[in-house]
Amino acid sequence: MNLIVSDLAPHIALLAQGALLTVEVCVLALAGAVVVGAAIAMMRASGSRLLRGIATVYVDIFRNIPFLVQLFFFYYGLPELGIYVDAFATGVLALSIAGGAFASDVIRSGILAIDPGIVEAAQVYGLSRRTTFLKIVMPIALRLSVRPLGSVLINLILTSSILSTITLNELTGSAKIVASQTFRPFEVYAVLLLAYASLTYLLSIAIARFHRRLNRGVLEAV
User: Is the CB of residue 79 less than 8 Å from the CB of residue 89?
Assistant: First the structure.
């Protein structure tokens, strides 16, 4: 089949709007995932057996339940308890919580990669354990985790296509609308394939370069 540009051109604005919505959802979800992941990573690194246990259970649960099931629970299940959240907020919430389970492993790995000598030096200067962790360990761990966190972002972008199942017209949802209006599913979804491939490829290159620039000189120090 030939791609009929004249048939798709009137719908480019809708697809662009869907792509923008995908970016908005995923950027907010990444921020949420980093916050959740950092909290879980700190709990797993704490001396409290209870906190470590809670964090471990959290990671095991949200890494082993299909995201679609989690999404439907938040969107269709919570209203049964009187909690109503719109599709956009539900998408951000679900992606943040699920992404946080993966981000916690990334951040924890960054913490473990830090030279213990840095922590010992901070203690020599009289810094408390908490101050050392929040002011020194976490910033370095996050810098070291930029690239793998970028992989989490890419995974969020790919996973966000499932949000079309709760009526959120992000990129995939917009493509479904265009396909139903133009009766050209092959061409529309071919464009969708190229859009996701291009977006994630360019993003991976940008993340790799940002990681190298941000950690220039830091990698040798840890």
Answer: no
